[in-house]
Amino acid sequence: MKTDLSNRLKQYKRRYYLNLILGGSINALTIVLSAYLFINFLEYSIQSGQLIRSILFFGYILLCLYVFYKWLLIHILPLFIPKKQISDEKAALNIGNVLPSISDKLLNLVQLNKQANYSVLLAAAIDQKSIQLSPYAFDTVIDFRKNVRYLKYLFIPFVVVLVFSVFFPSIITEPTTRIMHFRQDYTPRMPFSINVLNKNLIAFKNEDFELELETVGNHIPETVYILISTTGKY
To answer: pLDDT digits over 57-76, tens only?
Structure first.
């Protein structure tokens, strides 16, 4: 019976850590995606220099490493290193919180199992309590479905990344490229764009040609120059 209790608690602990990994994975993705959007929108807005972009790059890497450790690694290791797992007493208390009807019996049984002086009378008491607890499956008190509530937090940054990637890809790709290549100098993006309105751009030598332009943006240029040769003349 002692071995049976130990195995049942092991099954509970395994499911306990798998549940933490599942919830941690959702939370980690939420944080990583949200941080990615933040630094992307920041870089897209300010078009920073090498120093700021290097801070954003390494800061994001450090954040990802911390999130991986905080939400995943510390829950993954106990699956392979039993010494890092919660104690049997802690497992019994957790199970008792969900199944209060067996809380005291289970904790008492775990404590009896820890007794060094294992007598015939003690063995009989353990067997009796184990039989009373046999109808209960300890691992089933862990409900993976409860992690669904965290998906609503992941949904928002995921949809934002998806929408911008499909409809406004430059807002995602441009700052990402700039941050990844933080050692490279980039020419600041013009605060306006120029659209040519002429449908026909055919011109004849020594004849005037009227070029119709439209400027769009927060700042409108006073003068527009056109490059008419490869020698640098305007």
So the answer is: 999 999 999 999 999 999 99
Residue spans of alpha helices (H) in 99-193: 103-113, 120-133, 151-167, 169-180
- Close Cβ partners of 55 (under 8 Å, ≥ 6 residues apart): none
Task: Please give the pLDDT value at position 134.
Answer: 78
* Phi, psi (deg, nearest 5) at residue 227: -80, 120
C-alpha closest to that of 18 among 78, 100, 97: 78
The token pair at 13 is 């602990």
- How far is Cα 24 from Cα 198, in angstroms, rounded to an integer? 57
Provide the pLDDT for residue 123: 66
* Dist CA 106 CA 99 (whole Å): 10
What does the buried/exposed string (b/e) look like for 104-142 if buried means 16 or more CB atoms within 10 Å of the residue's CB?
ebbbebbebbeeeeeeeeeeeebeebbeebeeeebbebb
**Confidence at 121, pLDDT banded by 50, 70, 90:** low
Helix (H) or strand (E) holding 192: strand 192-196
- What's the CA gap between 107 and 96, in Å, rounded? 8
pLDDT at 162 over 70: yes
| SS3 annotation, 79-122 | HHCHHHCCCHHHHHHHHHHHCHHHHHHHHHHHHHHCCCCCCHHH
